[in-house]
Design goal:
30% helix, 6-stranded antiparallel beta sheet
Amino acid sequence: MKNNSLDFYNEKVHEECGVFGIYKMDDEVDVASISRDALYALQHRGQESAGIAVNNDGNFKSIKDVGMVSEVLTNQAMEELGTDGKIAIAHVRYTPYQALDRAGSQPLVIRYIQGSLAICHNGSITNFAEIRKNLEEGGAIFQSFSNAELIAYVIATERVNSETIEDAVKNACNKIEGAYSFVLTSPSKLIAVRDPYGFRPLCVGKLGQSYVVSSESCAFDSIGAQFIRHVKPGEMVVIDEDGFHSYMIEKPKKSALCVFEYVYIARPDSILDCGPVHAVRKEFGKELARDFPVDADLVCGVPDSGNEAAQGYAEESGIPYSAVFVKNKYIGRNLSSMKNTKKERLLMMRLNVLKHKVRGKKVVIIDDSIVHGSTASHIVKLLREAGAAEVHMRISSPPLKYSCYYGSDLHTEKNMIANLMTVEELQNFVGSDSLGFLSIESLRKISNENGISVCDACFTGNYTGPVPKENYVDKFSKKIKLSK
């Protein structure tokens, strides 16, 4: 297999979005400013677009565009949103570079027979193609390929024949399948919904007397809010002037939080369904030390998601932990349109090795996953060039072999290196002295011990929920859009 590209960006499993919402119960609360602060904490979940929609007693204002939070939600933009809103929802988006479009930026604000509605979504609707086709045949007009627009259209259609917005949302959710954690605001309510499998995280907190919802609890810490609990799989949370209300849309199926939320996506200071991310990642590292011990001088992690597992490996093995990489955090992430020579140069700029720490040492390096193998081989090369005597690579997840249909942007199975090589061949490819992956048995054991039921289909091919029967094809475009 020829290593054509050192593309750090495409080497990782990417998240699909972060959502946030707030309902003001305290007069002094500025919902727009708080939403922006929360988005900074959720920026790791998406860097391609950002936006906020503010609802002031049914009057909606929104600012959204392609770019990072700091680029889109400038001080001037915040002045346009104002300080008078009662409800706000906010969004950061990840999307494959080739599918990036402004029309898909969120929050999406629509106006229909019952007034206005704004929505933000995280996940992937697996029956997207069927629903979209049926709506288009009925005369529906779409501006984007986003799941949010599809969900909004189904809710609006159901609202015409429903007494309340809650009934409309419930009926809509009975028609859509797959992974969805979304927040929406009607003229007078903030609503948050999580699919019956709980593929994507969603939680509730309080800021004074005001209620907040978020993809991750780290956003609450950044705004001084108190974490209350997670939204349950199949639950709809409604917040209005009378307070907090909970409804079960559908009886929860087998809970199946995406395991990559723990492996890579979520921030280590977040608390997911049954435990702190930091603690679970350390357990991954401890299990790696038990399964793949080695005589070494130091353990280090590939920043940032390899650090906690490396600490766990060090604690269990007794080998000292040391940070040996310096990461340049100001390198842009969108590299996929660049020529390989520029990609390679940017990748070299991204990570530097503290040479004095590894020179002449036997090093254990921990990373969260291997997709193509190009980043792993580059990291091994960096350590060898810095003078490491031996380089032993450990991966805190099993080999990736299958596509994800529930919101993580994974490459096609034919491009995953674990489907093309044995572990021994992959070890030779990356150039390490040894290579070990966390076993699926160990991953499940750690999950069960922490009370976590996860979706691990990307490792096993055993999909918990429905998978798409067909891809949506826009006959007026040369691109084929998957149901993202």
